[in-house]
Design goal:
The chain is mainly β. Helix content is 0%, strand content 65%.
């Protein structure tokens, strides 16, 4: 739901959707009412690269000089995402429809370090930092969910609105400066007898062009999985994971690196539960940690989610 960078697949190597955001009970649409959710998100990731090239110099090209360059980027991003959802009482196509809006407040720090070498001897090295803080891109969601015994499934569409501050000349931005549409299907199997839950969500993101840079990010796919054991109605733990892949290449005159497709995997753990708040009200808390691997044209690091939701 946020986009930290304008540097690296999809443009900046980042998506409007945060992998791992849905997680457990992905297919379960609650009963009619108003719901508020707060999500704390922290991401610590790195990306690095290097290149070398040899040149023949002097009379007859008798002197060979090898020039090289290497660089590393470190990103530390924190987001506070505030989500309001309304589930309607009236049924639609036999399911429960709803609408939601999510607004993130983002704080990000980027550190870039690089070295230029001649014949493997450092000649020039440097380090620069950038910071960005503010409201990120807003998302509006339409959804509908159905229930059938232990099975719960839904369909939703996220529309991402470029409300975050953006300047193409800045190394770091809290907005992506592009619209995007993400249809998604969700499914949860929850056996209330033995407490076993299996949840999954599959989404596809269709990006519009960033007109400030003439860069059109390619279409993306995001798959999320969760295997959870509910030990009681108030406590659960399990394993979570996600897979992100860019399906089509980037395009436009600003896509100087070519199609620049990206991918990443995440695997981790989840622990959560419910806290009675008086009467029938419950505060649901969920913590998820993901360790990323297999990065291509994206940051690779560690992601932490802490979510709290309640009906009011």
């Amino acid at each position: 739901m946020l986009s930290p960078l304008s540097l690296q697949a999809a443009e900046g190597g980042s998506s409007v959707y945060l992998p791992g955001f849905i997680g457990p009970q992905a297919g379960m649409v609650p009963e009619a009412g108003n719901y508020f959710q707060y999500t704390y998100y922290n991401y610590d990731g790195q990306v690095s690269g290097s290149a070398k090239r040899s040149f023949a110099l002097g009379p007859g090209g008798g002197v060979v000089v090898t020039a090289g360059a290497s660089a590393k980027l470190d990103l530390d991003l924190t987001a506070n995402v505030f989500t309001y959802t309304h589930i309607f009482e009236k049924k639609l196509w036999g399911g429960s429809p709803g609408i939601g809006i999510a607004v993130p407040y983002v704080t990000a720090d980027l550190t870039a370090a690089g070295t230029f070498t001649i014949n493997n001897v450092p000649v020039v090295s440097g380090r620069r930092t950038a910071e960005a803080t503010g409201i990120g891109d807003t998302s509006v969601t339409g959804l509908i969910g159905w229930h059938h015994g232990y099975w719960h499934y839904g369909a939703l569409a996220n529309v991402y609105i470029p409300t975050g501050k953006y300047d193409k000349n800045d190394a770091l931005n809290v907005g992506m400066n592009r619209w995007a549409l993400q249809p998604m299907g969700t499914l949860t199997y929850l056996n209330e007898t033995n407490g076993i839950e299996v949840s999954t969500a599959l989404g596809f993101t269709f990006n519009r062009e960033n007109h400030a840079t003439n860069y059109k990010s390619g279409n993306e796919m995001n798959l999320e999985l969760a295997l959870i054991q509910h030990l009681s109605q108030k406590f659960h733990l399990g394993v979570v994971g996600y897979h992100y892949k860019q399906l089509s290449g980037d395009s436009g005159s600003g896509a100087v690196l070519g199609d620049f497709k990206g991918r990443i995997n995440g695997l981790g753990a989840v622990i959560g539960g419910a806290i009675p708040m008086g009467g029938s009200n419950m505060l649901y808390i969920n913590t998820r940690y993901y360790k990323e691997s297999g990065a291509k044209n994206r940051f690779e690091g560690d992601a932490l989610y802490v979510s709290a939701s309640m009906k009011f």
